[in-house]
Amino acid sequence: MAFLIKSMIGNPLSGIGLGGGGDKEEEAAPTDPAKAAGMTREEYEEYQKQVVEEKMERDADFLHKKAERATLRVCLRDKYRLPKSEQDDNMIEMAGDDVDVPEELLKMVDEDATEEEGKDSLMGQFQNLQNMDMDQLKEKASATVTELKSKAEEKCSVM
Predict the structure, then answer these.
(1) List of residues 6+ apart from 74 with CB closer than 8 A
(2) What is the pTM of this model?
(3) What are phi and psi of 97, to 5 degrees?
(4) 78-103: per-residue pLDDT in tens?
């Protein structure tokens, strides 16, 4: 910190060049990184240990999150009968066996599964029929019948 303040303020006479050259040795960049950071050697070593530990912790958390996502993708692939991905399997293996899908995501997947089960059932199909527009369905059916009749007349000379 002192180095930063000294470099900002500096010696006002050193820039002019009027014989104040005695401070040149002090202004040279220190070769020791601890002195450059304004810390003692022990403080600097402790700081470096903390930085490394924090980085390792962040990397472990990131790996765990990636493994959770991979687990969710595996669950979705199983649900929809999609092919498995080796990349997801490798990610889960790297993280270990302690990977679980977050509860919120499992709830979302379960809600989707119950909705799809309802749509796949016979009652679900009846409910879909109630929601359909019958007039539109009748128009579409009559248009299809007239189209079939016209094609049949073109091909058949008896009609």
Answers:
(1) 84, 85, 88, 89, 92
(2) 0.45
(3) -85, -5
(4) 878 889 889 988 888 887 767 777 77
